[in-house]
Write a structure and sequence with these properties.
This protein is of the alpha/beta class. It contains 11 helices and 14 strands. The strands form 3 sheets. Strands 6-7-8-3-9-10 form a 6-stranded mixed beta sheet, sandwiched between helices. A 4-stranded antiparallel beta sheet has the order 2-1-4-5, with helices on one face. Bound molecules: adenosine-5'-diphosphate. Adenosine-5'-diphosphate binds next to strand 2 and helix 1.
Length: 305
C-alpha cells in the first residue's frame, strides 16, 4: 500500500478541518481527491507530506509513519503545494539544483537536466522563475516534486489557474508520471478526474463521503437515471411527469426533454408511454449520470465546479 490513512483528524482551534478520515491508496493508482473549497483537501495533503502534524490518528506513506519516520516519508513523496510557492528571483536550473540538493539527489546535475527534459522546460531552463508563464511555473513545481524520483506524488490543484492548453499539457504530464508512480491529485474540476484518475475520494466538511471508481460512482449507489427524448410534436410537462419512476422533467429544446428518474426501467417506461399515447418519437437515449451530478448530490454543492 502506498498510502494508508487511519482515523486522521486535524483541528485548527475549534475548527475541525479533517474529521477522523480513513482511506488507502494502492501502489500505482491515480487517485482524485475531490471536494468543495474548505473541505479539508489541502490539510490532508499537508499532513501526508509531513508539513503539519495531525491532531489525532495516523498515516503511513510507503509503509513509513508520518510522525515517527517523517524523513523516510519525505524521501518517498513529491509534493506540489497549492499556489506552488517558488523563489521567483532564482533561475530555473538554479532552483531545481537547489531542490535536488535538498532532496539528497546523488548526481544532481544530470538529474536536473533529466527532469527539465521530462517536464518540457528545455527552452525555459535559463530563465528566471519570475519570467515564466503560470503554466511553466507549474511545470517547475512538478519538476521540483519529482526531482528525487519519489514513489508517491501529492499534487494540490496542479492545474488551477492554467489556460486550457496548459491544462491539457499538465494533465498529459501527470498521466505520463502516473505510469510509474502513485499519484494523489486534488481538484474540483470534474473533467480532470475523468481524464486522469482511476478512483475518486470525495471529501466534504472534513468527512469522506465517497471512495470509489468513477463508473461505480456514476452508476451504483448514487444512481439516478436520465433519458433524453425528442417527440415529433408538443407534449405537456404534466403528462411526462405521470410516467412511472419520473422525478424531474426539463425542457431542453423544441419538443425535446430530459427526463430524470429513480428506477433503472426509466427508458422503457418512457418508451411505453409514447407508444401507448401514439406519440411520435424522433430520438430516445439513456444518459449517464454525470460526475457533476454525483458530486452535487454528495456534497450538496451547486457552485464551485
Ligand atoms: P480545501 O483544501 O479542501 O479547500 P483546507 O484543507 O484548505 O480545504 O481547509 C479546511 C478547513 O480548515 C477550512 O475551513 C479552512 O478555513 C480551515 N483551515 C485551513 N488551514 C487553516 C489554518 N492554518 N488555520 C485555521 N483554519 C484553517
Amino acid at each position: 500500500m502506498s498510502i494508508e490513512v487511519n482515523q486522521l483528524t486535524k483541528r485548527y482551534g475549534e475548527q475541525v478541518a479533517v474529521n477522523s478520515i480513513s482511506f488507502e491508496v494502492r501502489k500505482g493508482e491515480i487517485i482524485g481527491f475531490l471536494g468543495p473549497n474548505g473541505a479539508g483537501k489541502s490539510t490532508t495533503m499537508k499532513i501526508l507530506t509531513c508539513f503539519i502534524p495531525p491532531t489525532e490518528g495516523s498515516a503511513k506513506v510507503c509503509g513509513f509513519d508520518i510522525g515517527e519516520n517523517s524523513i523516510e516519508v519525505r524521501k518517498r513523496v513529491g509534493y506540489l503545494p497549492e499556489h506552488n510557492p517558488l523563489y521567483l528571483e532564482m533561475f530555473v536550473k538554479e532552483y531545481l539544483r537547489f531542490a535536488a540538493d535538498l532532496g539528497g539527489v546523488k548526481k544532481p546535475k544530470a538529474r536536473v537536466q533529466e527532469v527539465i527534459e521530462l517536464t518540457g522546460l528545455v527552452r525555459e531552463q535559463h530563465k528566471k522563475l519570475k519570467q515564466l508563464s503560470k503554466g511553466y511555473r507549474q511545470r517547475v513545481g512538478l519538476a521540483q516534486a519529482i526531482i528525487h524520483d519519489p514513489e508517491v506524488l501529492i499534487l494540490d490543484e496542479p492545474t488551477s489557474g492554467l489556460d486550457p492548453n496548459q491544462v491539457v499539457e499538465m494533465r498529459d504530464l501527470i498521466r505520463q508520471l502516473g505510469k510509474e508512480k502513485t499519484i494523489m491529485i486534488s481538484t474540483h474540476i470534474m473533467q480532470e478526474v475523468e481524464a486522469i484518475c482511476d478512483r475518486v475520494i470525495i471529501i466534504d466538511k472534513g468527512n469522506i463521503v465517497a471512495n470509489d471508481t468513477l463508473d461505480n460512482l456514476r452508476n451504483k449507489d448514487n444512481a439516478s437515471f436520465a433519458v433524453r427524448i425528442q417527440f415529433g410534436s408538443a407534449i405537456s410537462e404534466q403528462d411526462l411527469k405521470q410516467i412511472s419512476g419520473v422525478t424531474q422533467v426539463l425542457k431542453t429544446g423544441e419538443n425535446q426533454w430530459r427526463i430524470e428518474g429513480n428506477i433503472p426501467e426509466l427508458r422503457q417506461n418512457v418508451s411505453h408511454f409514447a407508444l401507448a399515447n401514439n406519440y411520435e418519437v424522433l430520438e430516445l437515449a439513456s444518459e449517464k449520470n454525470s460526475l457533476e451530478d454525483v458530486f452535487r448530490k454528495l456534497t450538496g454543492n451547486v457552485g464551485n465546479i
